[in-house]
Design brief:
Shape: globular
Radius of gyration: 18 Å
Strand order of the largest sheet: 4-3-2-1-5-6-7-13-9-11
Mean pLDDT: 94
Distance between the termini: 28 Å
Oligomer: single chain
Strand content: 25-35%
Low-confidence stretches: none
Length: 221
């Protein structure tokens, strides 16, 4: 079994049990620096059991000097501004942690709509930026409200009958034939993000057939 890594962003810290369980059971916890103070406020939650992050990463503009000094052993200062802290954390994980099997992004949504949209778009972009499929690394984004899965080609997904399902892609040339959804997506043109949202599964497993490899996310609520 490979390692599970959780990357915590500065969006909404989870209140529900499932995402908190994901954090507490991870092999490695990486905090974006803007989320560190929030994490400290929640670390004594029964699911986290006082556990500290293994790494706090970012440009440190959101972390006080006193916290940087107190927790210097876990601080990773990255000055470059080409990527946001979520991407810095993900790049750090890929470059420094062996045998990763799964990376969960938590706290990537909420508070600011621009950050939420950007982080969901980055979840798709990571599939193009990094050889995740070659390495067998799975990634997703989890919140109190949804699980977001990036996909790049034909696949089947176990979702459960009656699950709210949305599909988003930035590729207007992509066509996705669907099985197991109430409203088929076969004729959807993905020229705007809303085009295949607010669907619903009508069986436990859905099938999505791409006309070519591309980028998309499936949002399960």
């Amino acid at each position: 079994m490979g390692k599970t890594v959780v990357i915590i962003g500065n969006g909404d810290f989870p209140k529900k049990e499932f995402p908190k369980y994901i954090i507490g059971s991870a092999d490695i916890i990486i905090c974006c620096d803007g989320a560190f103070l929030t994490y400290l406020r929640h670390k004594d939650d029964p699911f986290l059991m006082g556990r500290m992050p293994d790494v706090v990463i970012g440009d440190m503009d959101s972390t006080s000097k006193s916290l940087r000094k107190k927790y210097a052993d876990i601080m990773v200062h990255v000055e470059e501004q080409d990527y946001n802290d979520q991407t810095k954390a993900f790049k750090y994980a890929l470059e420094n942690i062996d045998d990763i099997e799964t990376v969960h992004f938590i706290g990537a949504t909420g508070k600011r709509e621009d950050h939420t949209i950007g982080n969901i778009a980055l979840l798709m972009e990571y599939m193009r930026m990094f050889p995740l499929e070659e390495k067998g690394i799975n990634i997703d984004m989890i919140s109190d409200y949804s699980s977001i899965l990036p996909i790049t080609d034909t696949c089947t997904i176990d979702v459960g009958d009656g699950r709210a399902v949305s599909i988003i892609s930035p590729d207007s040339t992509l066509r996705i034939q669907s099985e197991g959804l109430v409203w088929k997506t076969d004729d959807v043109v993905f020229d705007n993000w809303w085009k295949a949202t607010l669907n619903k599964s009508c069986q436990d497993r859905i099938g999505l057939k791409f006309n070519h490899k591309s980028l998309a996310v499936v949002i399960l609520n």
